Predict the 3D structure of the following.
Amino acid sequence: MKVQFKISNERFFNNGKIVLNAIPDVRDSIRKALSQEEVISTIRRTPKGRPEYDGINAASLNKALRRCLSAESIKGETHVENGVFFHTTKSGFDFSFYDEKYNIARLYNYYQGTVGVLNGDKKIIDVYKKLGYKKKEWKGMIATISSKVEENADFIVDKEKLIVAGELQFGNWALIYRDLFRLLDADSNPGVDFYIYVTADDELSGFLSSNTVSFRSASEVISEYLSIIKTPVWLIGLGINKL
């Protein structure tokens, strides 16, 4: 089924709208990505006590949205390890924006900085694949940084961009709690400055399997836990127009 995505609902928490307007590149990239045309798969649903209907396959929906994000050069699957953002098959945030130079500086300091780890100068070379570099290129970068700082000293880089993490969630309603715990964990190290949560509006939710996360349920849960969620949040209710 061919559809055009649209942002039909949105809500902000913890001054999220103010922060979003301060990062127009992120705002515009997300809005553009979530207004693309795509093809998603349908599935025949037979709910108990209700007529059969053609629903939407959540896996297909997720894949289509990831293609839309990728088309806008938004970084995909992102997980936090030792305070650093990596891109591997490990479970993590579905997408992210961050300052790459600042991220590499944090990685360097973890392995070879003031505290460092045992044999950090050798171990740091092995992470090149996690960051998407070729080994020779990565070794050259580390050698360049090492030439600029003293041994066992931190490489100081000012963060020039806010760290933004985001989630696409169309699964079971309980998954929102896992997502928020992941945010709380990452928010302490390296720190997430802004969080984007994309889920289904009421109409789209009706095409997915029952008991899935929706804009309405996500809004209620986030509101309930605002005493511990300090990160500015942009909650998006995603809709579709059938083409």
